[in-house]
Amino acid sequence: MAINSAPETSLLSLLYRSYPAAISPDATDPDLLHASGKIFPQVNFSVAESTDIKQWLGTINGLRNALTKDDKSVVGNILGQLNSHLATRTTLLGSKPSVADIAVYALLGPVVEKWTPEERTGEKGYHHIVRHVDFVQNSRLFSLRIPDEEKVGIDVNDVRFAPKPVDPKEEKERKKKKAAAQNPDANAGGKPLVVGQGKPEAKDGDVAAAAGEVSAKPKKEKKEKKEKQPKPAPAPAAPPSPSMIDLRIGHILRAVNHPNADSLYVSTIDCGDAPGTENTSLDEATGKTVRTVCSGLNGLIPLKDMQNRKIVAVCNLKPVTMRGIKSCAMVLAASPRVAEGEDSHGGPVELVNPGDGPAGERVYFEGWNTGEPEKVLNPKKKVWETFQPGFTTTDNLEVAFDVSAVPAVQGQEGKPAMGKLITQSGGTCTVQTLKGAAVR
C-alpha cells in the first residue's frame, strides 16, 4: 500500500512527518480547520477560502464514512463531485495548497492505488482525482515527506480516454441556464412587475403646488469657469529593445502531428505560467499549466526529438489559429540564411537549446535586459518583425542579437554590438551546428 490504510491515522502520520514545526507529534486530534495557515505560512487564505476548506473537510469526512460502510451510491456521488470540481483547478482552492488537499490524498491514495487503469483514466474514470493525487504527492508546493516506495504508482502516459477540456465560461453559462430553468419566474434581480399598474395620475391641485415649489426655488449662481491647466507632457518613450519580446525557457511535455496539416506539429509546452493564465490550459497528465503551440517543424525535425525537451519559447505573440488549433506561443529555431525570394523553410533546422533551467525562466539578450516584456505584442507595431532580423548564431554556436541588422536600435550608448542570448540563471542558449544562421 502507498500509505497506511487507516485514513485518519494516515493523515495524522503524514502531517507529523511532513510538517513537524506546524503539527505537534504529541497531538492526537490536531485542529485541521486552522492547520492550513500553519502548514503554509506564506499563503494568505481569505474568509471565503477558509470556509471552502471547512466544507471540503466535511465532505472528505463524509466520504470516509461512506467508504467504511461500503455505501457505493454515496461514494460515487462524492467522487463525481470531487472529480468535476478538480477538472478546472490544480488544487481544491484553485491554485493555493491547503490541508484539505492533503486530507484528500491521505484518504484516496490507497483507493486510487487499487483502481484499474479503466477506473483511473477510462471513459467513466476519475481522471482529475488521479491527477490531483499524483500532483499532491510529488509537488514542491506541498513538499510531503513520502518515500518513493510509498507513493501511489501512477503512469501519467497511461490515459485510456481523453475527456474534452472543461471551458470555465461554458460551465458558468450552463449553470446559469440550469438555474433559470429551475426558477423561470425569477426576474433577474429586478423589481416585480404588476400588470396594469402605472404611475398615479397627478391632480390639478398637485400640479399647481408643484409649480409653486419650482418657482419658489432660487436660481443657482453660475460658477466661474476655472482656467484649464495645461496637460503635463507625456513621459519620454523607452528606447526600443528586444527585451520587449517575452522569451522564456519552455518544456515540451509532448508533441503530435497536426491532424489537419502535414507540415505542423502540435506541442504541449510548460512555459511556467500561473494556473488560470489567459491562453493556457491544465494538462491532465501532469497537472501543469501549459500552452498549445503549433510549429512548422514537421519534416524538418523528427517527432521523437520534440518529446520531453527544453526549448526557448516566444510567449507574447498574439495567438493565432492554425488549421483549427489555436497556437499560443512560438518555438525558437535556427536555420541557414537564404537570399531574398528563396525558400526560408527548406532546412536544416535546429531548436535553440537553453540548458537545464526551469520552465518559465526568463531568457534575454546580454546587455539588453532593459525592462519587462510587453504583455502582448501589438501586430500593428511590428515589434517582432523589427528585432527578429538581429537574431543570429555565432561561430561559437551561441544565439545572439546583432545590432548591425536592426537600424531601430543602432546608436544606443552602452549596448554590445553582439549580445548573447542567456537565461536568468546565467546559462547560454546555443544551437548544435549552424553558424551565422537566422533564428526565428
From TrEMBL:
It comes from the Eukaryota. Keywords: RNA-binding, tRNA-binding. This is tRNA-binding domain-containing protein. Coiled coil: none annotated. SUPFAM superfamilies: GST C-terminal domain-like (SSF47616), Nucleic acid-binding proteins (SSF50249). Residues 231-242 have a biased composition (Pro residues). Residues 241-364 form the TRNA-binding domain. GO terms for cellular component: methionyl glutamyl tRNA synthetase complex. InterPro entries: Arc1-like_N (IPR053836), Glutathione-S-Trfase_C_sf (IPR036282), NA-bd_OB-fold (IPR012340), tRNA-bd_dom (IPR002547), Tyrosine-tRNA_ligase_regulator (IPR051270). Signal peptide: none annotated. Residues 161-244 are annotated as: Disordered. GO terms for molecular function: tRNA binding.
